[in-house]
Specification:
alpha/beta; inorganic pyrophosphatase (n-terminal core); Diaminopimelate Epimerase, Chain A, domain 1; 5-stranded mixed beta sheet; 21 helices
Length: 585
């Protein structure tokens, strides 16, 4: 599918000139800053030098006082506390974070609980509440779910169990009648930053508890690695507080990963063994990025909950002994391999269904159902189908007599609103603008499909159905100097809201050294600009092997790309990660 290249609107020349002068940087770097809403020296300083002192006071969040007072009351009255969380990466990291910190105070009076994806489904379950009642837990802290659990909280209230809800999903019209509901997306919440992850909300809770208990705030910062993983895996914007949390969390992972994370990383070959003082130690071969957390760590933590029990992922994150962590990581890595097999098989089956159905193939949305598909991977399949067909997509399967599904969207289309339009046909739904989950009775499936598709047909624009590559600015290869690269590197961590800049360079030609690799699916490029014989750059272009013959013929072309560092056999080299290629005639 051919993509549209869209160059970002020009930034205010006065702002660019000012930033260039006060920061002593070249104009093109100043443009990149201005595009990110940075207009002054102080804003640039905060961007390039994130500091934990810039975090907001956690007590600015609605209900935070009430939540902390209830936990303190439980501490003083020797009550038992249950930490309850969703089974995905955000939920399991949040549970590990809150459990680890509060365990210092509650000792043996604290436990955690992760609902079974297949037996209990998403969110607060009746079984989970019954478990709390049967085991004497008077207080339950819920993380990364619960914002719509109206009936479940009523059931808990009848059993005299207090709930504190920590969520970051969009609330419905009514809030659960819990002791406290922490969610900055509440309409009556004036917390300045609205895009925390579920683990991020948990971090604010323990930060507030630490302040109230006069525990050094540095003791809370020990868990920023978990927050960073949640931010990466849940694809929340890496702006504002999330940028600060991700920056320091990444630094902790690179400097001294906790045993569970180190054990996971052994399965992705980013460590080498070094001997120091006659002892072997593990050393990272390169600095890990947000992208590494997304693709290396996230899927493995997720795999336990997708295939078996997410509680194993929490145990991995809690592990304090390397031997225990390595055993859990091996088991989880095996589950991830199984997950990959399911993912590949179901994606192929779903693609074949679309390809063989003319109506589905030509539609502006995809709603696809197979009762035999594995519930644990339908979210991944929905993402893959969205990438392939580029339209709002819902993948559905059957579990315990109910149809359950995952939804993914494309740029500028709010799939949460589209599902909300069908809410009377659903048992449950929740999520974000670009990703959501839902469940419904089998007898409502056809009506849901029709209404959802009609909504998309009415509200989506044709231009939205063409993949768009947004280009930050145009560069000549001569612009890519050591100083440019040194400053560009400080724009990280990259992610939503602060994506790695996409550059465009025109009049590119092959040096004669480019080649097709991976059964001719991909390209390893060595290219230069037509007028500059001396300066060439290496590049990788995944899934662009079809361009090989035309590139080899010497025809000039344009590329859009990210600038990256590539590590190979202990050496780090500059590489252009080419996202698209267009020939100039």
């Amino acid at each position: 599918m051919e993509s549209r290249w869209v160059v970002k609107e020009k930034s205010d020349e006065r702002v660019v000139k000012h930033l260039s002068e006060v920061l002593s940087i070249e104009k093109k770097l100043a443009i990149l800053l201005a595009q990110r809403g940075i207009t002054t020296y102080d804003e640039a300083k905060d961007f390039f030098r994130p500091d934990l002192s810039q975090l907001h006071n956690p007590f600015l969040m609605k209900d935070m006082d009430t939540a902390v007072d209830r936990i303190i009351a439980a501490y003083h009255s020797n009550e038992k506390v249950l930490v309850y969380g969703d089974y995905d990466v955000d939920g399991t990291t949040a549970v590990a974070l809150v459990y680890l910190y509060l365990k210092k105070f509650f000792k043996k009076r604290i436990e955690f609980y992760i609902p079974d994806r297949y037996q209990e489904g998403y969110g607060i379950s009746k079984k989970g509440i019954d478990h709390a009642a049967e085991h004497g837990f008077n207080l339950v802290i819920v993380l990364d779910c619960g914002i719509k659990a109206i009936e479940r909280i009523q059931y808990a209230n009848e059993k005299k169990i207090d709930f504190i809800i920590c969520d970051h999903h969009r609330p419905g019209d009514e809030l659960p009648n819990a002791i406290a509901v922490l969610d900055s997306k509440r309409e009556d919440c004036n917390y300045p930053f609205k895009e925390l992850s579920g683990c991020g909300v948990g971090f604010k809770l323990i930060s507030a508890f630490a302040l109230k208990m006069n525990d050094p705030i540095e003791s809370v910062y020990e868990y920023l690695d978990l927050v960073a993983i949640s931010i990466a895996a849940d694809i929340v914007p890496i702006t504002g507080e999330n940028r600060i949390l991700a920056y320091y969390g990444l630094r902790a992972i690179n400097k001294n990963p906790r045993p569970g994370i180190e054990a996971v990383l052994h399965h992705v070959n980013v460590f080498r063994r070094e001997e120091e003082d006659e002892n072997e130690q593990n050393v990272l071969t390169r600095e890990l990025t947000i992208s590494d957390l997304v693709f290396m760590i996230g899927p493995r933590i997720n795999a336990a909950g997708r295939i078996e029990k997410a509680s194993d992922s929490v145990r991995l994150l809690l592990a304090d002994k390397k031997s225990h962590a390595e055993k859990l990581a091996q088991s989880i890595n095996d589950l991830n391999n199984t997950r990959r097999e399911f993912d590949t098989q179901i994606t192929e089956e779903a693609s074949l269904m679309i390809y063989n159905d003319t109506q589905l193939l030509q539609a502006k949305s995809t709603v696809i159902f197979n009762e035999n598909w594995h519930k644990g991977v339908i979210g991944i399949v929905a993402s893959r189908l969205t990438d392939s067909y580029y339209r709002p997509t819902i993948v559905l399967t059957r579990s315990n007599g109910v149809i359950t599904g995952s939804a993914r969207s494309i740029k500028n289309f709010d799939i949460y609103d589209a599902i909300d339009h069908c809410s009377d046909l659903l048992l449950h739904f929740g999520g974000h603008k670009y990703a959501a989950g839902l469940s419904l009775l089998p007898e409502n499936l056809e009506a849901f499909k029709q209404r959802f598709n009609d909504y998309v047909e009415k509200h989506i624009e044709e231009t939205m159905l063409v993949p768009e590559i947004e280009i930050d600015l145009e560069l000549n290869f001569s612009d890519i100097t050591p100083k440019f690269l040194r400053i560009l590197k400080q724009f990280a961590p990259f992610g939503p809201g602060n994506m790695s800049p996409t550059f465009k360079t025109t009049n590119i030609v092959d040096t004669g050294q480019s080649r097709a690799v991976g059964n001719h699916k991909h390209l390893k490029l060595t290219v230069r600009q037509n007028w500059n014989i001396a300066e060439s750059f290496a590049g990788i272009a995944f899934h662009k092997g079809d361009f090989y013959e035309k590139i080899r013929s010497g025809q000039p072309f344009s590329i859009c790309y990210h600038i990256e560092e590539n590590e190979w056999q202990g050496k780090v080299n500059l590489q252009l990660n080419v996202k698209d290629i267009k020939f100039e005639n």
